[in-house]
Design a protein that fits this description.
The structure holds two protein chains of two kinds. By secondary structure, chain A is mostly helical. Chain A is built from eleven helices and two strands. A two-stranded antiparallel ribbon of chain A has the order 1-2. In chain B, 79% of the residues lie in helices and 0% in strands. Chain B is built from 14 helices and no strands. Classes of the chains: A mainly alpha, B mainly alpha. Chain A: Keywords: Cell membrane, Membrane, Transmembrane, Transmembrane helix, Transport.
């Protein structure tokens, strides 16, 4: 752990990216304290005000207001909550499914491996967003359903990486030795092989954060993600699309946040990969 | 054989998807004030009164003859609608991939050859940005700046060359970044091989080493990626088509999902899987053409 932190401290880009992600996490956690206004409070008299406008109460709308007079800054702050929650939930559930299937597939080999890998191939045949859209359309919009759908559509990335890592270590001498010593299969899998597949697994998970945040926003953008009452970056972009020529600020800021968060997750993932898998 | 298994599995997934919809597909097909009798008649017509295994066999029979039933929304055969929208998507994906490949391959190779230089760093950062920007936001920004503010291109629509530039570019950005990054890493890997050292040691000019030896070998993993991505895009250019009102499969998908046109969605899901499998087969063939060792091995 110490060696890992030391190596991480030498990678400035990854560190800056991590710092930004931690800030976003704090913004999401403390949104009620940080947001200057209620993100759902509507005031038609204050609609489409440009960034920096001071309203009659002396309150500054730093990022302007949207078509219903809601404060864009407050909505951007609250929007981070859904993005982080959905990405974290989907990485956790999708990661757990992928890890277990990858371990089973790689270690068991034979027919279990064949069946599981054909399952991966079948799912790969569907475009990611098409599958996610279809499932949300069937299950209905809710945060939990979006998390579930994104977990089910993303587990294959982990499973493939974990499987190939298991294959690369399962015939190594230390595994053979524990096997010869009569250690049970489960113990070999979880105590001896699992630690070796964690590095590539963590790298995939960090890249998945970026993919999932964009996927969630895409679903919300099409009106099929989280219910409309929740402020999300994707839904803000959908609102902003209709007012692009009159009120560019509605669409610019949530889009920039999405891009920055995804970029930082990718930069951090890149740094992690260099540290954990230097070859 | 593997392709057939994938197709059978994919069609089973599509079958299950349509069966887990809350509510009765037969009543969805009819207007809200349909009588119980009409619904029952529709259920019989759709074969929903049969046992589930019989429904599945009929469904497979229909797929084999490419009969996917009618779209609820438009009352036309789903296959006809898909065939009408497919050329627009194919055109868009073709140009997006051309843009991505033509820019990304030289860029990725250049970054690898100049490893750790400023240009390598710039290419890597740009590629990461390309992979992080949500494509629909990029599309919206292009519409705002190029179409609305500068009035250089039409905001959306289909028909002329000027209509295709922005959507193709929007769709290309992610692919461009992905291919450039992959090309960079595969070039770096090839550069470390002994035969490259030998080629240099025997005095070949660097340009010959790069184009004759490195290029071809670094291209192999990139071709797989290009194939996979093309397959995904044919069914997945959903958001780009939606933003630019491009009348392709993606646009049809969003419309069908919004209208809860389940038979249409099911057909789209199956067709995407078929397209994906066919493209994968083509990639395997392309592999064998580029790398003769694969033919010998198999």
């Amino acid at each position: 752990m110490k060696a890992f932190l030391l190596r991480l401290s030498k990678r400035k880009t990854a560190l800056i990216a991590l710092a930004f992600l931690i800030i976003i996490l704090f913004i999401a956690l403390f949104a009620p304290m940080l947001a200057p206004m209620d993100p759902t409070e509507q005031d038609i008299a204050r609609r489409l005000m440009p960034p920096g406008t001071v309203n009659e109460e002396g309150f500054i709308h730093w990022l302007g207001t949207d078509q219903l007079g809601r404060d864009v800054l407050s909505r951007v702050i609250y929007g981070s909550r859904v993005s982080i929650m959905v990405a974290a939930g989907a990485v956790f559930i999708g990661g757990a499914i992928g890890l277990i299937i990858g371990l089973l597939s790689g270690y068991s080999g034979k027919w279990i491996d064949s069946v599981l890998m054909r399952l991966v191939d079948m799912q790969l045949a569907f475009p990611f967003l098409l599958l996610a859209l279809t499932m949300v359309a069937i299950l209905g919009s809710s945060i939990m359903n979006v998390v579930l759908v994104l977990s089910v559509t993303s587990w294959i990335s982990y499973a493939k990486v974990v499987r190939s890592s298991v294959l690369s270590v399962k015939f190594l001498e230390f595994v053979e030795a524990t096997r010869a010593a009569g250690t049970s299969k489960l113990s070999i899998l979880f105590r001896h092989i699992l630690p070796h597949v964690m590095s590539p697994f963590i790298v995939v998970a960090s890249f998945q954060v970026a993919t999932l945040i964009i996927a969630e926003s895409s679903l919300s953008f099409l009106g099929l993600g989280v219910p409309v009452s929740e402020p999300t970056w994707g839904a803000m972009l959908a609102d902003g699309r209709e007012y692009m020529t009159d009120a560019w600020w509605i669409a610019i800021f949530p889009g920039l946040m999405l891009m920055l968060v995804a970029l930082c997750a990718n930069l951090f993932g890149d740094g992690l990969r260099d540290i954990l898998d230097p070859y | 054989m593997q392709a057939v298994i994938v197709l059978i599995g994919a069609s089973a997934i599509a079958f299950v998807l349509l069966r887990i919809i809350p509510g009765d597909p037969a009543s969805l097909m009819l207007s809200e004030n349909a009588t119980e009798e009409e619904i029952q008649q529709m259920r019989e017509q759709m074969g929903l009164n049969l046992p589930i295994w019989e429904q599945y066999i009929n469904y497979i029979k229909d797929i084999v003859v490419l009969d996917f039933g009618n779209s609820i929304n438009r009352g036309l055969p789903s296959m006809q609608l898909i065939l009408e929208h497919l050329p627009a998507t194919a055109l868009l994906v073709f140009w997006a991939m051309v843009i991505a490949i033509v820019i990304a391959i030289p860029l990725g190779m250049y970054a690898a050859v100049k490893k750790n230089s400023l240009s390598d760093y710039i290419v890597s950062v740009l590629a990461l940005i390309g992979q992080s920007v949500p494509s629909y936001w990029l599309g919206m920004m292009l519409i705002l700046f190029i179409a609305v503010n500068l009035n250089l291109l039409p905001t959306s629509g289909y028909g002329s060359w000027s209509h295709i530039i922005m959507p193709a570019f929007t769709l290309a950005i992610y692919q461009l970044a992905l291919i450039a990054r992959l090309m960079r890493s595969s070039t770096l890997e090839v550069l470390n091989h002994d035969y490259i050292r030998t080629a240099r040691a025997k005095g070949l000019p660097e340009i010959v080493v790069i184009f004759k030896h490195v290029f071809k070998n670094a291209l192999i993993p990139t071709i797989t990626m290009i194939g996979l991505q093309t397959g995904q895009l044919l069914g997945g250019a959903i958001i780009t088509e939606f933003i630019f009102s491009w009348p392709g499969i993606g646009f049809l998908t969003v419309q069908s999902i919004q209208a809860q046109d389940y038979p249409m969605i099911q057909s789209l899901v199956i067709i995407s899987a078929i397209v994906f499998v066919v493209i994968n087969l083509l990639v395997d063939i392309a592999y064998a053409v580029i790398d003769r060792r694969i033919v010998v091995d198999s």
